[in-house]
Predict the structure.
Amino acid sequence: MQNVEQLKELHRKRFGAKPLVFAAPGRVNLIGEHTDYAEGFVMPAAIDFSTLAAITPRSDGRIVFWAENFAEERSFELSALPSSRKGDWSDYPLGVIQMLAAEGYAIPALSLSLWGDVPLGSGLSSSASVEVATATAVTSLMRVAIAGPALARLCQRAENEFVGANCGIMDQFVSANGAADHALLLDCRDLSYRLAPIPSNVALVIANTMVKHSIAGGEYGTRRAEVELACKILARHRPEIRFLRDATVEDLERWSHEIPEAARKRARHIITENTRTLEAAAALERHDLGQLGRLMHEAHRSYSQDFEASCSEADRMVELAEGLPGLIGARLTGGGFGGCTINLVEQEVAQEFRTRLASLYQAETGIRPEIYICHASDGARSLA
Ligand code: GLA
């Protein structure tokens, strides 16, 4: 776990000035998977794993990054910043700086130290937390205020256009705008959102299958292309369908013979997932945890069978959780093909749930999982 005072001291020793420090969290998605780029609904929460960013100005015309996780430095001439990615960790902070520059901001020379504890490649949005932490720190140094939704959009563009991962808006949005003890229901069409309190007797238990996932990898892109193909075919009949958000199950049934099977299944997941996500938000708001759990169960089945974005380990992790006392709902969270499951669990049995799930999963798969008991946390913030 990173420590703010330790990071300040590290930064001061390395760069010779006392920094300001900012934090931006990772996220867990309760429901609404792959719906963000179809302009649909998602309901994630920011979690208490985060990236810290310490920042100070420089006077030598350079941009210097230090990644405490890798004990590596990268240094760039401000007047000759790379315009394309290198396949390196520095692509994330550099991408954010390039997007700020593209918006017309004059970027000052700066030193930025990053230190994160979001598990990497586990579907908990470590990259979004680096982007949002960087954007928060750099705009604060520039004394520029960018509202949370616009900041999230800028960070998404850094990931799409600079890093080269074709993600939606969910991760950056909740990292920038999340609130402690709340889930965030986001309409990815107009970025309007509302916060739904997570009852204090509910724990967010995140179970890492230890199967690595990457959204830069091919599967995410293939799924997205299938979703867009189904949308294009439906739009020939109903031009008002701009994204699958605008389509209904009836549309899909009516023209299903024109849509290749894989695209049809992906579309069915997206259309039904949008409905489930809205229902889940309503269930959470009226404290109907039974209904919320049922919707998570259906969402997992749809993600696994229609979207085919699960893996045998994640399916097993969900099934094992569903057999344990105290479970409210479980499903694979994030981009898919590995990563973590989210388990909503009655707080008073959360520790026992964690121990039992870990030993059952290890006994069956031979893999020792990491299981974290998390809390919904605030989005990006200054730690002074
Ligand atoms: C990744 C992407 C998000 C979203 C999810 C799937 O986390 O970054 O934009 O598409 O996958 O819901």
The chain has a mean pLDDT of 97. The longest strand covers residues 41-57. DSSP finds eleven helices and twelve strands in the chain. The pocket of alpha-D-galactopyranose is lined by residues 29, 33-34, 36-37, 167-168, 170-171, 215, 334-335 (CB under 6 Å).
